[in-house]
Design brief:
- The structure is a single chain.
- By secondary structure, the protein is of the alpha+beta class.
- About 30% of the residues lie in helices and about 20% in strands.
- The chain has a nine-stranded antiparallel sheet with strand order 1-3-2-13-12-11-10-9-8, sandwiched between helices. It has a four-stranded antiparallel sheet with strand order 14-15-16-17, covered by helices on one side. Strands 4-7 form a two-stranded antiparallel ribbon.
Length: about 500
């Protein structure tokens, strides 16, 4: 592989879980960035619920070769999700309370003058959710990684500025996550970096991820910044009191595995085991033996806890070490970006399907999140509804009660019986549309479409386990049927919509 931008795209396991033409389109997004001089090198990976699907790389990583899935980059603030996971492990063990004030773990914070007389000391939950009231601090904090705990205490004793009363609004704060690193180190008794490595990274199976440049892993890329028409190499900072904000080195392989593990908390099959030795495969299902963080806490990490104002057209919030936005097609998308001097990183995935993208570049302010988001949207828009992959359709997760209701509705459409309607519908159905009118309208729709309700559906879709829609081709038009269950254990239908559409129209979109 040369430094000319030759693609290194490949299928990780030959599964064909994402169409080849989509992978080529994703690869083009990153190839074009190197060609445009955005960064000397760019590497990406696409993963789904089973693990890494494909990866590719372009440019010169520093040795005349293009990067691959095992090339090591700084991942910067993508580290914050590991910091949050380490803290949640201590919560599970009863060693930490998220409502505890930071002063319980960092005594020097007692000397910080709060913005108002009635301001509370920031709690661990406020720090996790970027709502401790501190100013946004990326340029300053990016240069603090190597300072000692004693130096951080001196910073606190010197006083802090506040943009808001603690607990009242969002502002991205690296200082907050540096303080959380101190909490993890003190509560665990072994130090932040040691605990995060042994309790989180090692059990998940991330051998090329560490707080120092891994000498026995893949090639370690050096970060650069533009200078005098070329690139100026930057030194790698060492670990210290701010490592918890963004100190990790990692690879596409490892970070895709971490993201798959987090998203696996939302899938019913998440009790399955991953392949040994940190590998991924079709049966991995995003889990690992003796998963370090419970599914409940991994789900909590991926819930918007604090609204992020002005983020863009999609509703967005901050969870625990992760950003959560509402995608108009697939629903929640979890993500985090990372920016360090000389590096740019991003990871994002649909929590519904597990389909995601990771990407790294080695130039200051390269803004690889823009490219990764574009690549992810491309996948979500061109794959089946809700971003699902073949073999992992949204309809695979509908409840048995929903399937039973589909069968009952199909029988009703084929041959109406009042006793079957009584057993199928919730009480609101007849109140919303009198039964005689509903029965007449259903019969007219079937006749107009020239459809046989018992025919096999040509398409199905679902946006929740209690929702299901399907399309049946008729001789004159298509019959679209859609139901939604009431929140009753009996599985009763609260909404039934039947409509006629031309075969060319897909009303799901």
């Amino acid at each position: 592989m040369t430094a000319t931008g030759t693609t290194a795209a490949h299928s990780a396991d030959g599964s064909g879980r994402v169409p080849a033409e989509l992978l080529v389109a994703v690869d083009t997004v990153f190839r074009d960035r190197v060609a445009a001089g955005v960064a000397p090198s760019s590497v990406w990976g696409v993963f789904d619920a089973a693990g890494l699907v494909a990866s590719g790389g372009h440019g010169d990583r520093g040795d005349g070769r293009a990067p691959d899935a095992d090339t090591v980059y700084r991942i910067a603030s993508c580290t914050k999700s590991v910091t949050a996971a380490a803290l949640m492990l201590l919560v599970e063990r009863g060693l930490v309370d998220l409502e505890a004030p930071i002063t319980d773990f960092v005594p020097a914070f007692h000397e910080v003058r709060l913005p108002t007389a009635d301001s509370p000391a920031p709690t661990l939950r406020m720090l996790l959710t970027m709502s401790a009231g501190f100013p946004t601090d990326d340029p300053w904090a990016d240069r603090q990684e190597s300072i000692t705990d004693e130096a951080l205490d001196d910073v606190l004793r010197g006083g802090l500025l506040f943009d808001a009363t603690p607990g009242t609004r969002y502002a991205y704060s690296n200082l907050g996550y540096a303080l959380l690193g101190r909490v993890v180190g003190r509560a665990s008794g072994v130090g932040f970096r040691e605990f995060a490595t042994s309790a989180v990274l090692d059990p998940v199976g991330m051998p090329s991820t560490s707080f120092t440049a891994p000498g026995d892993a893949g090639y370690v890329v050096r970060g650069v910044r533009p200078h005098d028409g070329g690139w100026e190499q930057l030194p790698l900072s060492g670990p210290g009191a701010f490592s918890s904000i963004g100190g990790l080195f990692s690879t596409v392989t490892d970070l895709a595995r971490w993201a798959t593990h987090l998203s696996g908390a939302f899938r019913p099959d998440a009790s399955g085991s991953a392949m040994p030795g940190g590998g991924t495969g079709p049966r991995a299902a995003g889990t690992v033996p003796n998963s370090p963080v419970t599914r409940a806490h991994r789900r909590l990490m991926q819930q918007a806890q604090r609204s992020i104002p002005g983020r863009g057209p999609r509703p967005t919030g901050y969870g625990f070490g992760l950003v959560v936005e509402e995608h108009p097609v697939v629903g929640p998308v979890a993500s985090h970006s990372g920016g360090y001097p000389g590096f740019s990183a991003h990871m994002r995935w649909s929590t519904t399907s597990g389909l995601g993208v990771v990407a790294f570049e080695n130039a200051t302010a390269a803004r690889v999140p823009v490219a990764a988001t574009a690549a992810h949207d491309l996948l979500l828009e061109r794959l089946p509804r809700h971003g699902e992959l073949p073999g992992a359709a949204a309809t695979d997760r509908v409840l048995p009660e929903t399937r039973a209701a589909q069968g009952a509705v199909t029988r009703l459409l084929s041959a109406w019986r009042d006793d079957l309607a009584d057993a199928t519908f919730a009480p609101n159905v007849d109140l919303d549309v009198p039964r005689d009118r509903r029965r007449a309208a259903l019969g007219a729709a079937i006749t107009t479409a020239g459809a046989t309700p018992t025919d096999r559906p040509t398409t199905e879709w679902s946006d929740a386990p209690t929702h299901l829609g399907w399309r049946i081709h008729g001789t004159a038009a298509d019959l679209l049927v859609e139901l939604r269950l009431a929140p009753l254990a009996a599985g009763l239908v609260q909404t039934l919509i039947v409509r006629v559409e031309s075969p060319e129209t897909d009303a799901r979109r």
